[in-house]
Design goal:
two-stranded antiparallel sheet, alpha+beta, 71 residues
Length: 71
Amino acid sequence: MGGLRGPGKARRKRSQPREACPYCRRPALFFHQCRYCDFFICQGCAEDNDKIFSCNSITWPCPACGKSNSF
């Protein structure tokens, strides 16, 4: 009975990488995205550049528009 589901219980599809990071060119499942402009960066690149993307570990300044975003 392990494979039975009740009515309305659909199986979730695994998330597919939507696009490649503009810095490392690798596809990623999650991106930090600016709320004000179209800038985005993958988690790996954000961690590698923590001096730029972490001013207090809660918010990050967008390098494209300069506005503050939350993690």
